[in-house]
Design brief:
Layout (H helix, E strand, L loop, with lengths): L2 E6 L3 H14 L3 E7 L2 H11 L3 E5 L1 E2 L2 E2 H8 L5 E6 L3 H10 L2 E4 L4 H12 L6 H13 L5 E5 L4 E5 L3 E7 L2 E6 L4 E4 L3 H8 L4 E5 L2 E4 L3 E5 L5 E4 L4 E3 L5 H10 L1
Parallel strand pairs: 1-2, 1-3, 3-6, 6-7
Antiparallel strand pairs: 4-5, 8-9, 10-11, 10-14, 11-12, 13-14, 15-16, 16-17
Length: 247
């Protein structure tokens, strides 16, 4: 199925290169418009209403985030293109909004377009979460989680633990419900490490704030506030002891 697309980037050569790459690697994408800034981009997107927008962050008269704020109701998918901006990349990961690092790798471009093709419409809550994180310029307090059916936005503090399930991860929450999420435990380990989450076992990532007790017998295991028992691997015992000291 053909998808219509627009490119918003203030560098003409970057737009040209991306068009060439899309023509070569993503033939199902049809470019129907280009713009080089916030004002021109907002007007263009309001007029042509594409299925997907390749949106640069740093523009000549503002940022790609400004365009999303101006438009308000986002009726298209967004793939951000960015140079190495650590804060922005963290915001993308937590809000489950897709991005490509410049210079754009063709394999990453193909994967991003494939993901877009599987989604029927954008999730406004994802963009709201992204914009709030960027606006506050602080560590995200919420996390967007993809399941097979939908995207759930949850408070990080409400997560008790995460358990590996092959290429999926099961999240367990304070209120007793759980979600099977379509990303690996390794990805969440990297994202949540600064929030007092720790990988205490190959298959388990826990929220240290939700530890009830550490039982040293039977190889050692944690009892969480939801009464679940989580094994602690031998090499992670020192990590657990440090966590408990810092609480």
């Amino acid at each position: 199925m053909k998808l219509t697309a627009a490119i918003v980037d203030d560098v003409a050569q970057a737009r040209a290169t991306l068009k060439e790459d899309l023509a070569a690697y993503c033939p199902d994408i049809e470019i129907i418009g280009e713009a080089d800034g916030v004002v021109t981009g907002s007007k263009l997107l309001n007029k042509i209403k594409p299925d997907v927008v390749f949106l640069d962050i740093q523009l000549q008269d503002g940022t790609g985030f400004d365009i999303l704020e101006i438009l308000g109701d986002i009726s298209f998918q967004v793939i951000f293109t960015t140079a190495s901006d650590e804060f922005a990349i963290k915001a993308f990961k937590f809000s489950a909004v897709d991005y490509l690092l410049k210079p754009v790798d063709p394999d990453e471009l193909i994967l991003a377009v494939q993901k877009i093709s599987k989604v029927n419409n954008s999730t406004q809550e994802n963009y709201d979460l992204l914009l709030n994180t960027v606006k506050e310029q602080s560590a995200p307090k919420r996390l967007a989680l993809h399941t097979l059916e939908k995207i759930h936005v949850t408070e990080i503090a409400d997560i008790v633990r995460c358990e590996s399930n092959g290429n999926y991860t099961t999240f367990y929450f304070k209120d007793g419900h759980k979600l099977l999420v379509t990303k690996t435990l390794k990805e969440y380990d990297q994202m949540l490490s600064e929030y007092q989450f720790a990988r205490v076992h190959q298959s388990h990532l826990i929220n240290a704030q939700q530890i009830k007790e550490f039982v040293k017998v039977d190889g050692g295991y944690l009892v969480m506030r939801d009464c679940s028992k989580i094994p602690v691997s031998l090499r992670k015992k020192s990590v657990v002891m440090k966590l408990l000291e810092d609480l």
